[in-house]
Amino acid sequence: MTDTTQTGAPTTDGPRRTSVTKRGGGDPASRGRTTIADGVVEKIAGLAARDVVGVHAMGSGLSRTFGAVRDRVPGGGGAKSNATRGVKAEVGEVQTALDLEIVVDYGVSIADVTGDVRENVITAVERMTGLEVVEVNIAVSDVKLPDEEDEEPESRLQ
Prior knowledge:
The protein is of the alpha+beta class and 158 residues long.
């Protein structure tokens, strides 16, 4: 918004002189602070990691089992806990670091899958948050064999 004020009386030899005062100067993006919670970055990273072919699941076997039980309990966390399972983020003012724990499918190149996960996570987090991802540490905790059943307990409901 601008305010225009007259600084002098009209003269016969020229136009009136005016002064323009701008309020709230500067770029709108610099007028305040944005903070991003660890959980937001964890969700973005978890979803980006799951998108990679060869990633069977996120988290250790124990955390997946507890998560499956928690998902079945009403109000137990459901989608939120599932999205962040196996992901830990440390978020600073302008940078973030991530630790991921994944289970890969049998037969895939672990080096290729972890490289693709790292690239996908970095791209998604930096694009969505504007934070610089300084590191993505990946721990492969298991390999899903073709004949193995998932560790999620059966539902008692039919």
